[in-house]
Amino acid sequence: MTADPSTVPLVALSVESKQVVSALLNPPKVIPSENGLPRDWRGFAHLSNLKELDRWDILDDTVELFERDSQTYLSQLERSQTSANVIANEVDEKILTVDDLHRLKQGFENQYYDAFLLYADEDVNFAIEMVDKLENQYNLKLCLKDRDLIGGITFEHEAVMTLISERCNRLIVIISSNFLKSSANKFFLNYAQALGIEKRQRKVIPCLYEKCQLPSQLNYMFILDYNRVGLYDFWGKLRDSVCTLSRTENNTNGNSDRQAVHFEKEKEYNKLEKNETVNIQDRKLLEPLQDPNNHIGNGKDKLKTEESLQSPEDNLNNHKDNNKKYNNFLQWTMRKWTRKSENDKKKYIPITESKSKIIYRRRHVLQDIKYLRKTVQLLIPKSVFMRVIRQIISDLFPNSGVVRIQASALEALQEATEAYIVQFFEDCTLLSMHAKRITLQVHDMRLLRRLRGRSDIVNK
Prior knowledge:
Elements: H1 15-25, H2 41-47, H3 56-79, H4 89-94, H5 98-105, E1 113-118, H6 124-137, E2 142-143, H7 145-148, H8 156-167, E3 168-175, H9 183-199, E4 204-208, E5 224-225, H10 234-242, H11 245-275, H12 299-308, H13 312-343, H14 351-374, H15 382-396, H16 407-434, H17 442-452
Parallel strand pairs: 1-2, 1-3, 3-4, 4-5
Helix pairs in contact: 1-3, 8-9, 16-17
GO molecular function, one term: TIR domain binding
GO biological process, one term: defense response to Gram-positive bacterium
Family: Belongs to the histone H3 family.
């Protein structure tokens, strides 16, 4: 790009050019120019034009520097015309993968995937083979953490969890001995399985790449074995396991059409039954009403329907007989249930038998008490206690953003809770014994809380 230095302002001069010009203009000149101005820095300050001062020597020495400075000035001026886009927080939060970036530029929504592929770093060759099979041959869209995740995400695990829960229909897990060594892979597997239980979906698709000891949560699931030989089609089963939504949609459409045909046939049959006159031409309308979910009828049922079509008037009489039999069956069931209700009345139990049962219950309770005194295990189930703690945290601190609790913290809370409950009930039993009673009542607990005062954690 060639630039005219006469059109460029003096601000574009670089430091090197200014030093050269000042070095040539600083020496004083005795002979003035044609305009009567000195040919040094004094005349330049008055005119700012080297040609009128007859200083062609300076122009010859600095022409290359002036051209270079003008080019850099014009290029900077051109670059300043364009500016980067301002970051929109609402749009930037939705961008998790490279596909999201390209789709949002075109005005589309975020990218959704058929499955998220989870594997160990040592099994990357098998993962590449699986991606090649599913994407190139079966036209499925997979999401990989190393390939599709965009750079600069603050928390990688949170982005992967969002992709598994909201953007990906399935989670394909390549199980091997290396996969089970990674704690992050185990966490994502447990998270996806919990999502499947919550949404009642088939979320996890396990694929066994190397024979190893399976984790406990996968023992009851059907696993696709890559090393299995024979008629077992691994890639076909994997494809069918991922894309099952289209098949269910086709089945629902087919079932709706067959139900409509079945409904029309049933209406025509009811009209003929009301008129009680059947013509020979209307025999085709008396075809057997099949189940709309069945595609092909049974051969024996067809033979029976052909025999019934020979005499339509007899079919109507048989239909009335069937109604009578159905009414008789209803009456028989009514009698049966009334007899059963009469037999289920409480029988008289002698006093001796009731006392023996009470004694047995007492012995059973004493055995439980002895067992609980000896054991050191926690009594409240951990799953129930964990749900209660989560509910309390969400009620007291709704905006805290606490999602997970450490196992050690949960165990400490449970031990403290059980110790408090045991001590509370021990004091309550002392109050009931002081009142000369064996049964613990509600006002004993109220009295104990009253006696403890504000020092008790419950009363705070």
